[in-house]
Amino acid sequence: MLIPSIDLLGGRIVQLVQGEKLRLAFDDFEYWIEKFSRFPLVQLIDLDAAMRQGDNSELVAQIAKRLPVQAGGGIHSIDRARQVLDAGAQRVIIGSALFSEHGTVNATFAANLANAITADCIVAGIDTKNGRIAVKGWKAQVALTPDEAIPQLEAHASAFLYTHVDGEGLMQGFPIETAARLRKLTKRQLIVAGGIRSQQEVDALDSLGADAVVGMAVYTELLAV
């Protein structure tokens, strides 16, 4: 399944390269909402909140009322997760809050969150740079690998979102062998992102049992949707 992404920064829809360099920006929300309305799931990320430089809460709520979204970015508490769900999101994406600065999974928070909003509403965000999990808007890393983290979070999430930050926005393809390895680690829904550039790649990932988040290739019209 192809999952289009909407990334929000400074009140606009944007596409960044490796989470840092601004490549594209759009103000025409109606165009993209209409374009993505036929998809069963859309990914919605508040980059300002993820980077701890403000938020786009009103935009998130407006879009979540019109599209079936899983929403993330700066969700660090049970209260905030509930707010995003109450705003209309089907699921929340939780990343940095699942990991401690000491390089361990924050199992207590994961369990408490799942008890509060149910695991069905949680997507565990596993963002990786150079093989290690990246946190705080990809500005920091912890000494933990996806292979170590995923089994510990299996009971507390309905899905795992693995973002290959090294390839994000570059449209150079997603490492298919990584998807195959991750697929063996969990029975939950596996969603991957980072560099996906073609329908053939989406189909190859689908054959492995992985769904594909696509951003840059959609917005540059390299991949037609």
Description:
31% of the residues lie in helices and 28% in strands. It is α/β, with parallel strands linked by helices and 225 residues long. The protein has one domain: TIM Barrel (Alpha-Beta Barrel), CATH 3.20.20.70. Strand 7 and strand 8 form a beta hairpin. The radius of gyration is 16 Å and the shape is globular. The mean pLDDT is 93.
Number of domains: 1
SS element count, helices: 9
Number of strands: 12
| Uncertain ranges | none
What structural category arises from helix and sheet content? Answer: alpha/beta
Strand order, sheet with most strands:
1-4-5-6-7-10-11-12
**What is the fourth-level CATH superfamily?**
Aldolase class I
Q: Averaging pLDDT over every residue, what do you get?
A: 93
- Overall CATH architecture: Alpha-Beta Barrel
Query: The biggest beta sheet, please?
Result: 8 strands, parallel, barrel
Q: What name is given to the CATH topology? A: TIM Barrel
- Helicity range: 25-40%
Order of helices and strands: EEEHEHHEHEHEEEHEHEHEH
What shape does the CA trace take?
Answer: globular
Strand content: 25-35%
